[in-house]
Amino acid sequence: MGYQGVRRTHPDRPLLRMATMLLGGASSSRLVQDLRAIQGLSYDLSSHSLGREKSGEIYISGATRPETAVKMMEGIDRVITTMKESPPTEEELVRIQRLYNTELAGLMETADAIAVVTADIDQFSLDKELIDATRRQVNAATSAEVCRVIQEQFDPSSRLVVLVGPTVELEEKLKQDRNWGEVQTTGSTPR
Predict the structure, then answer these.
(1) What does pTM read for this prediction?
(2) What torsion, rounded to 10 degrees, do the Cα atoms 33, 35, 39, 41 define?
(3) Whole-number Å distance between alpha carbons of 125 and 115
(4) CA 53, 156, 2, 164: dihedral to nearest 10 degrees?
């Protein structure tokens, strides 16, 4: 499942990354807790945001059985809707701030990693203080700011769903519910 994201230099980029971490970026994330720990629908759930030069994307991925695919999609949609109405708790905010800071530290952990970051800064004409500025923004972020970005970026009208699996079964299940917008299926069909 995917949504339109923001370009890499957008001021909300760090907040969007925090939102995707809250959604599915760690074992304590809302998707993992709900769809894996409580419902047992998937053991492979994650969400990410990528910022590119001119645009970005948000994607949520997971694996489940064909017969539970629609239930899992509905669960993802429900968790996102809940996130829009319920900002991160103080505990969640601190947890995603720590996780983000750990990722930032990893960017500068080895000489090779530093070379990659330096090349990206030069190639894309990014602010040389980008990592420090991002760290400051992440540490100062509020639950209300993260919630605002969730409300703005997770727009069902821009959602794209791609399902891979036995397409006949999936298409039949999706015909029962027309609320998914554009849906693409790819995979095997019975012979």
Answers:
(1) 0.85
(2) -140
(3) 15
(4) -150
Query: What are the C-alpha distances in Å from 171 to residues 60, 65, 133, 162, 166?
Result: 20, 14, 46, 11, 9
Structure tokens that stand for 58 in this block: 């948000």
Residue 191 has pLDDT above 50, yes or no: no
Q: For residue 122, with 0-12 CB atoms within 10 Å meaning exposed, 13-18 middle and 19 or more buried, which class applies?
A: exposed
Helix axes 69-85, 13-24, angle to 10 degrees: 130
Confidence of residue 183 (pLDDT cuts 50, 70, 90): low
* Mean pLDDT for the stretch of residues 43-55: 89
Q: Which of 106-115, 138-147, 157-166, 175-184 is predicted most confidently?
A: 138-147
Assigned token pair, 174 = 């999706």
The amino acid sitting at 154 is: F
| Of the candidates 89, 78, 95, 93, the residue with the CA atom closest to the CA atom of residue 1 | 78
CA-based torsion, 56, 45, 159, 20: positive or negative: negative
**Distance (Å) of CA 61 to CA 44, 45, 49, 81, 161:** 8, 6, 12, 17, 10
